[in-house]
Amino acid sequence: MEKDNNPRVLLITPSLNPSDNISGISSVAQLLIREMKDYRYIPFIVGKKDTEKRGFRWFCRLINAFVRIWSIKHVEIAHFNLAFEPRALLRDIFLFVPLWLRRIPVLLHLHGGKYMNRPPGGWKPLIGFFLQKAPVVVVLSEMEKSFLQTHYPNINERKIAVIPNAIAVPEFYEEEKDFRSGLSLVFLGRIIREKGLGKIAEALKMVKDKGIAFTFYLCGAGPDKDWFMQTLSPDLLDSIKDMGIVFGEEKQSVLQAAHLFLLPSHGEGLPVTLLESMANFTVPLVSSVGSIPLVVHEDNGRLVSSAKEMANAICELDADRDLLHALAVRSRQTIEDDYSIAQFVARFKTVYRKTGRGWAD
To answer: Are 110 and 79 in contact, with CB atoms under 8 Å apart?
Structure first.
């Protein structure tokens, strides 16, 4: 058997099984494994399933992960995916420290989170430790790089690389989408309150009260699903399609049928689901957080800050289907122009060489 001489990369990520996790980080990890053929990835799974509660079994797996990380051998680099969220920071520091003590070069790949959008407060020392010890830090936009430079001025800016998320643009074309049919709306992601689901419930009620017919596809799983369903006005229930976790062809089918993608989140990085929806001619109605304003603007979607603004945007685009069509075409064009896999791969090859120090070109 021919020896595999490709550099080995420890890839720290949530589950790569889409039925376990609706995770932008998992999607990026899958993209790396699929497209970065010059590297051999060793996935190291952390976190819990979307449908799983934190309990004894979850705690045992956490301890097991800490033990296993010490036994990792023969890797040139650790690609460490991290969101600036309290639970993720507390969990992942127990994986990061062993890599640092063993002097395994770490590429710290940041995926937004609560403290990528606001001052870190008491979390600053812990976040600073991650940033100081990693040889290379990857962020999703120049905006995030500026944020780190403002709040962590001691971090060398030359170690911060900007690499936006990317997706494979589907072979789905403008003429295949019906922009005149009944209005279809979609939420796709983890069902947690931080995604702005309360605003969605309020906006849908306002739209319903105006006599506008629509179908809302709720795609995902999470701890706040029951809360969200109870928040919905009873007269909305006939308009809701609870799809559960969708992936593969089913996810593509939902996005290709949907006209509007709703994500009034309180905090984000650069959501992969946003890019996927725009690539399928689905117009985003999203909040202006994280790197989203660098992708979405008045020419390809709507930035909304309240339930009322979201409801107004839904009503506007339902009434003006020519505008809906035009925004959808520009959404797709944005993805084709700026979020291609070729750019993504080239940038990561560069930062891998920088992180590994001495890897061959």
So the answer is: no
At 57, is the pLDDT very low, low, confident or very high (cuts 50, 70, 90)?
confident
> Both 143 and 61 in a single domain?
yes
CATH code, domain carrying 275: 3.40.50.2000
pTM reported for the whole predicted model = 0.85
More confident residue, 170 or 21: 170
Q: Nearest Cα to 204, choosing from 238, 246, 254? A: 238
Domain membership flag for residue 222: yes
User: Residue written as tokens 């008045």?
Assistant: 298
Strands (E), the chain: 8-13, 40-45, 77-82, 106-110, 136-139, 160-162, 183-188, 214-219, 240-244, 260-263, 283-286, 302-303
Over residues 159-173, mean pLDDT: 93
Which candidate, 30, 330, 8, places its Cα nearest to that of 165? 30
Q: What is the mean pLDDT of the chain?
A: 92
Residues 318 and 195 in one domain: yes
